[in-house]
Protein 1
Amino acid sequence: MKKELFTKGEQVFVKEILNCLIPPGNELPGAGEIRIVEYLNDILNHSTELKRTFAYIFKKIQIESKIINPEDFKNIPNSKKENILKKIEKRFPECFNTLILNTYNGYYINSTVTNLLGIYARPPQPLGYDIEQGDLGLTKNVISRGKIYREIN
């Protein structure tokens, strides 16, 4: 059974961060609007190291945001949220990159996003995929060698 690592309040906080990292736009949802918090919960349940990294970076974001608004990260204007995240990224690049990498991983494997992008998880046949016509001139040397295998009867 998976353990819920985020309280309801923490989920709101994390969703706000995710929406800053991948905001809604171009008919795509923001990362906080789809099940990325659940995805993060799943991966954090399997790695103590990731759990520590995320706890550390979230704490740093929380501390920085309390300077601007002691009440709630959610009520800070988006431009100030972005400034907070940029500061944290500069100070703690390795931890912040871990947050970004896992946010993007969760976002681009989410079925809502892949469907909106027209990327479908299916076998290549029988529907096939459109393949761009390439320059076959590069195969000239291989073709000029002739057959280099034996026919099997």
Note: The two ends are 57 Å apart (CA to CA).
Protein 2
Amino acid sequence: MLFRSVESSIAPSGSRASFTQVSGAGLASAYRTAADDLVPSLDALPGWPATTPFKIYSGFLPITGTTKDIHYVFLEANTTEFAKAPLVVWFNGGPGCSSMLGLLQETGPYVLEGGATEYTWNNYTWNNETNMLYIEQPAGVGYSTCDNKTAP
């Protein structure tokens, strides 16, 4: 299934997130607009530039009927035709291993090499060819949350 652009695929539809297919192609509507989750800059991370040639989105997908919020980061493909690029969904192995490890040390555009104190450009970043969706799961891993007192 191809992923269109996040801006055209994510539309406001309420206060909780859900996935539904959009016009036969794409990640669906999450109750927020794409602008809500657009990351304007990551230059607070040493070595990341103030701007990137591709858009980055980060947010939470609430799981209906639970207290769980699943964190995601989406990187548009670093191509002029990102809307036609395939989508790769990345889950690090676990349990308990954050998918941010994959983004920030393995497949992302800037990586932190072992022992380094600044991120450096990754010539082999997967978003050179694909849209990348990093999902931190299960709830409670990384930035994903779960209220253990009331969680089903």
Note: Residues 100-107 form the longest helix (8 residues).
